[in-house]
Design goal:
92 residues, mainly alpha
Length: 92
């Protein structure tokens, strides 16, 4: 088996594995299923213009739930995205 190189960043690792044959580096016959426990999603900062009243309403709701308003906004967006991904017949 070849030794897996050290990578400086995720992009470098992606580039390596997009070209490499993993069978030269990993003995898949001895592989075991594992659940990654410390994976964090890659985040991207965006700007969204919201009305002042909408932000104030969001802050009020967040305060009632004792969470930061930006976290509450992410929860709301995630819930709506999940709903939109459901097949139409399940939503009716």
């Amino acid at each position: 088996m070849k030794k897996i190189p050290e990578f400086k960043n995720e992009a470098e690792e992606f580039e390596f594995w997009s070209r490499a044959d993993s069978t030269e580096f990993i003995d898949w016959s001895t592989a075991k299923t594992a659940k990654p426990t410390k994976l964090k999603p890659t985040l991207r900062t965006i700007s969204v213009r919201l009305s002042v009243s909408m932000v104030e309403d969001l802050k009020l709701l967040a305060n009632q739930r004792d969470v930061p308003y930006q976290s509450l906004l992410k929860v709301f967006l995630a819930e709506r995205l999940r709903q939109e991904k459901e097949p139409r017949r399940r939503r009716a």
